[in-house]
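Try it yourself: sequence plus magnesium ion, in.
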Amino acid sequence: MSESPSSPAKTLTAPQKALRKLGLVRDIDLALHLPLRYEDETWIVKLADAREGDTVQIEATVTACEITMRPRRQLLVTVDDGSDTCVMRFFSFYPSHQKALAVGNRIRARGEVRGGFMGLTMMHPHFKAAGGALSTALTPVYPTVAGLPQPYLRRAVITGLNHADLSETLPPQAPWPDRRGPWSLRDALQFLHHPTPDVSMAALEDRSHPAWIRLKCEELLAQQLSQLTAKRERDRLRAPQLRQKPGGLHASLLAALPFGLTGAQQRVGQEIAADLARAVPMHRLLQGDVGAGKTVVAALAAMVAIDAGWQCALMAPTEILATQHFAKLVGWLEPLGVKVAWLIGSQKKKERTAMLGMVASGEAALVVGTHAVIQEHVKFKNLALAVIDEQHRFGVAQRLALRGKMQEGGMEPHMLMMSATPIPRTLAMSYYADLDVSVIDELPPGRTPIVTRVISDSRRDEVVQRIGAQLAQGRQVYWVCPLIEESEALDLTNATQTHADLSEALPGVMVGLLHSRMPVAEKKAVMDLFTSGQMGVLVSTTVIEVGVDVPNASLMVIEHAERFGLSQLHQLRGRVGRGAAASACVLLYGTGDSGRLGETARERLRAMVETTDGFEIARRDLEIRGPGEFLGARQSGAPLLRFADLATDTPLLDWARELAPVMLDRYPPLAERHVSRWLGGKSEYLKA
Ligand code: ADP
Ligand code: MG
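Structure, out:
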């Protein structure tokens, strides 16, 4: 394609616009747009040999062609190829169909063969007049969008393939992870776009063919190269060197805490301290299962920065969470003389102005808040450490904005990103290769494992009794209402109804209601009542999903659990089991009209019962959903792998990880060409 990316959109035809929508702009983009599957039009099958479910091409004579009205209007065409007959059905058709399919015509048709009590049938087969040359190669079928017909796309791909620069970018004598040796990129692409008919379909489908190996390796290498480049660029930046003062705030906070740190907390604390003491910005991901105690680790890091005369920011994804962090941190830090400010969207103007002033003057050493912290008018005096809680809930742009809050020339703040959604090793190695990772792999002592039960919604009454029993022991209960994605209003009705039911069933108990549409002050009032223990049951939509910490709560009921994603269920369950009491999680499920649960829903609920280990949950989640959805917000940054599959291609990933630094050191021009071929202009975002 010769058109340049900057040509004005209005001059584009519909298919050209569609190409752009698919990101197919450069020749190389088209060349790398690989078929979803292939159709075999290289031979004609006898109807007698066709098996049910096969997509085949036949040549036959039309013996009947009629319109019937039952069970609905359709064109029924019977054909005979001498070996057997087949009935073709068309539900949408034009007079031209009837003409082309008139009795006596010989046609060539292709479609999926099905059995049936009338014999073989095909639904809406493609057809044309019989005769004409057979294809010599398999016909590629490309992923496409509306307005971009396959034949147009095929021609565009061929043009791209012919014009693209496919010269070698692998260093000479580079090792290769496949004993069959590397195919050249050109050969691999030629082959995948137009495989010869003798190829094993299985090797194409499971992507084990050497041509696929070449593409997957190329893709993984591009990803590793771009992330390593970003990391090296960041390593050239400067950040304030923050050293722990003996007997300083860090020590005072440790001494004031009502608990001692776990071994894992101490270890990651040291990893972070080592980063802060360097003059390059930290870029560290702190992973730890829900309840592992990440907040205190972040607070301790903040103490080091504040002691050195700098400011810190802590950003959380929801107001509830930000509020809770604020309360907790004020409790810990104000006795030590550290002033904490907070910024949230719904704050009163007067309060906000006061807070902004404290942040700008440096009077507030720590600022806690939501996205409000990264708004343009928020000016820090000297920000040195930015902590992002539940980082997977933030996009790349937001992380970049927080980094931009550093005012000192040429410097960047240290960044600590925290996440309770553990990332399986292969994902971390591939998507987060530019990050350092610390893991809290140990829960604070004294926690008893949460027992999880899956119970049909029809046994709701028993669950309500169970709530009564927990309350009688002085415990508290969460009841989370279903997520109905199409309608926030429905979510609300549901929660309101449950709230009314529980209030009635549990006389004398304070039952609260929390949902996202409530004014912030009201949310806060409800949360305060629950946190202080006065409220026994909190009915909520998923606003409590992340981070909420009420150790006395020991029962979590999740209604319509089948509608939640696995990591979300795990997060919700993590709201209990935070104190010493034995805790339980009840997953109520409804089966709807079908009377049974879908397969993936069942798998998710099974995983919840079988394990409470966040890493295992994450692994299964990845298995059930695939990395695309799993990565969530990160999607906007890292280009997802299109060809490689992290579940099966770990050896290829290892190969790419080893080769990337060698290439950057010894063959920088090759590395650059490789990255721009694969990522084009998209690699900018990876620096976040
Ligand atoms: P998360 O990692 O999910 O953010 P939090 O930081 O909210 O977890 O900690 C969960 C609870 O455990 C909090 O009440 C916190 O004060 C407490 N906690 C943290 N570390 C310890 C520890 N070492 N011993 C006992 N309790 C701890
Ligand atoms: Mg947390």
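One thing you can check immediately is this: Residues 249-440 form a domain with the Rossmann fold fold (CATH 3.40.50.300).
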